[in-house]
Design a protein that fits this description.
seven-stranded antiparallel β-sheet; binds FE2/S2 (inorganic) cluster; binds fe (ii) ion
C-alpha cells in the first residue's frame, strides 16, 4: 500500500518533483498523507507536514507513544502510599498510575473494559478500587475486574452468560519502571529496561537532581496551539534563549557566550542542555549585550528578590534542561525544579503539564525561593511565556506550506554530535533522526 501510493505520486506530481530536485539537489517525493520523506540524511531539513498532518499524528500515537518507547507518567512522590493514584496520559491515551495494596507501582489504560468509558476522572486521590460510573464495573488496584452489577441478572432475568469470565476483562496493563523516583510506562513489554533507555548522560543528571527524596510543590498547565514536536525543537535549541526571551536579554541572565553545551544519548533523541553560572552580573551583561538592541541598560528590577538563590548543586550548573524522547522535559533552572509533561491533543495542539518540586528536607526559606523562582517558567513565566507564542507562530506559518521544509543548519551540517557551546541546532537534528527511525520514515541520500 505504501509503495503504491508513493508510485502514484511519482506519476501524478512529476512536474513538482523536478522543481524540488533543482532546489535541494536531492531526489525526493512530496510528503503525502501516508508518506513522509526527510530530504537530507543529516536532518537539516524537516518537512512541515509532520507538524500538521492528521495521519502523521495517528502514526505517532501508535509507533511512538504506544510503541517501543518509555513515556513519562509522573513522580513517585505524587503517589507515596498504597491506594494513591494519579491520572495521566501516554501520548493521547488516558492512563491511571497507582500503587497497589503492597505499594507496587502499576499503570493501566484508563478505559473501562465494559464499554470504554474513562474510569478515573479525578487528577489524583487515594482509593481502594477504581469504579466506572457508567455501569459500576469495579477494578482493584492491580486492574483486575472484581465486581459486575447484575452479573447473575435480576429475579431470573438478564445477567451475563454463564461462561462470562471476569479475569478476561481487566484494565489493559502498562509496563512500569521508575528511575530515581521518575516513573515511566511502556506499551512494549519487550522494550529495553528504563535505565538502559535513558542512557549514561540522563542517568548522570537524574542522579544529581534526584539525589534525595523530593516533594511536589504544585502544578501548572497550559494549552499551546501548536504541534507537540515544536516544543521539543524549542528545548533542544539553546541559542534562541538569549534572543527570544526578552527578560534573559534585558537582564543578561542567559548569554550564549556562557560556558555550557549539549550531550546526547546513544540514539540522539534525548538531550541535556546545560550552562554554567546564571547569576545576574550587571557589569558582565553590559559587555555581552552592548550591541544588542534588546538590552536596555537603564532597566532594573524593582524587586530583585526573584534572583535570590541557594545553589542545590556544586557543579555550578544554572540551567539543566533534560529531555527524554518522546514525552517529557525535566528542568533545573537555578532553584526551580520541574517536570514538563508533553500531552499531545492532535496535530495542532498540546498541553504542557508542569509539576514543580523541591526536596523533602527543604527548609521554609528554600521552599519560598523555589516558589518565587517558579515565576521564571510556566505559562506566563518571565523566561518562557514566549516559547508558547513562538510555537504558535510556527504552526500558523506552516499550515498551508506542508510541502516546504525548515532549515536547521546553525552549527553546521553533517555529523550529529555532542557540543561544548550554546549556539547550535545540532541537538534538534538528533531528535529528528530518532523520530524518523521510530516512525520508519524514509530519509533520502544526496546524489
Ligand atoms: S462503561 Fe464502564 S461500567 Fe459500563
Ligand atoms: Fe525558550
Amino acid at each position: 500500500m505504501f509503495k503504491f501510493i508513493q508510485t502514484w505520486f511519482w506519476v501524478s506530481l512529476g512536474w513538482n518533483i523536478s522543481a524540488v530536485v533543482l532546489i535541494h539537489e536531492v531526489v525526493m517525493v512530496a510528503s503525502t498523507a501516508s508518506s513522509v520523506v526527510f530530504p537530507t540524511a543529516d536532518f537539516t531539513r524537516v518537512p512541515y507536514s509532520v507538524f500538521v498532518d492528521q495521519e502523521v499524528y495517528e502514526r505517532e500515537q501508535q509507533r511512538l507513544f504506544r510503541g517501543s518507547t518509555w513515556c513519562y507518567l509522573g513522580l513517585e512522590a505524587e503517589i507515596p502510599n498504597p491506594g494513591d493514584f494519579k491520572t495521566t496520559v501516554m501520548g493521547d491515551t488516558p492512563v491511571v498510575l497507582n500503587r497497589d495494596r503492597q505499594g507496587e507501582l502499576r499503570a493501566f489504560v484508563n478505559r473501562c473494559s465494559h464499554r470504554g468509558a474513562i474510569v478515573r476522572r479525578e487528577a489524583c486521590g487515594n482509593a481502594k478500587e477504581h469504579r466506572c460510573i457508567y455501569h459500576q464495573w469495579c477494578f482493584n488496584l492491580k486492574g483486575e475486574l472484581t465486581g459486575v452489577p447484575y452479573q447473575n441478572g435480576m429475579q431470573g432475568k438478564g445477567g451475563y452468560p454463564d461462561d462470562f469470565d471476569k479475569s478476561q476483562h481487566g484494565l489493559t496493563p502498562i509496563r512500569v519502571e521508575s528511575y530515581k523516583g521518575i516513573v515511566f510506562g511502556s506499551f512494549d513489554w519487550d522494550i529495553e529496561p528504563l535505565d538502559s533507555y535513558l542512557d549514561t548522560h540522563l542517568r548522570y543528571h537524574f542522579d544529581k537532581v534526584f539525589h534525595k527524596p523530593v516533594k511536589v510543590l504544585g502544578y501548572m498547565r497550559q494549552l499551546i496551539p501548536g504541534n507537540w514536536k515544536l516544543y521539543f525543537e524549542n528545548v533542544k535549541d539553546p541559542y534562541h534563549a538569549g534572543l527570544l526571551h526578552l527578560f534573559h536579554a534585558t537582564f543578561g541572565l542567559y548569554r550564549s557566550t556562557q560556558k555550557g553545551g549539549v550531550v546526547l544519548d546513544k540514539h540522539q533523541g534525548h538531550s541535556i542542555i546545560y550552562n554554567i553560572g546564571g547569576n545576574y552580573d550587571k557589569k558582565e551583561a553590559e559587555v555581552q549585550y552592548k550591541d544588542q538592541q534588546k538590552y536596555e541598560q537603564s532597566y532594573k528590577l524593582v524587586d530583585p528578590s526573584i534572583l535570590k538563590q541557594r545553589p542545590d548543586f556544586d557543579d555550578g550548573v544554572a540551567n539543566r534542561i533534560m529531555s527524554v524522547f518522546p514525552s517529557v522535559v525535566v528542568q533545573q533552572i537555578l532553584n526551580t525544579l520541574a517536570t514538563r509533561h508533553i500531552r499531545p491533543k492532535g496535530p495542532d495542539e498540546f498541553e504542557l503539564y508542569w509539576t514543580y518540586f523541591g526536596y523533602a528536607d527543604d527548609d521554609e526559606e528554600l521552599t519560598q525561593i523555589r516558589l518565587k523562582q517558579a515565576n521564571f517558567v510556566g505559562p506566563s513565566g518571565f523566561i518562557s511565556m514566549e516559547d508558547g507564542e513562538a510555537v504558535r507562530l510556527v504552526q500558523e506559518g506552516i499550515r498551508r506550506e506542508q510541502d516546504q521544509y525548515s532549515v536547521i543548519e546553525m552549527d553546521g551540517r553533517g555529523e550529529i554530535r555532542d557540543i561544548d557551546h550554546l549556539v547550535s541546532e545540532v541537538p534538534m537534528r538528533g531528535f529528528w533522526k530518532r523520530y524518523a527511525e521510530l516512525m520508519n520514515y524514509d530519509v533520502e541520500v544526496a546524489q
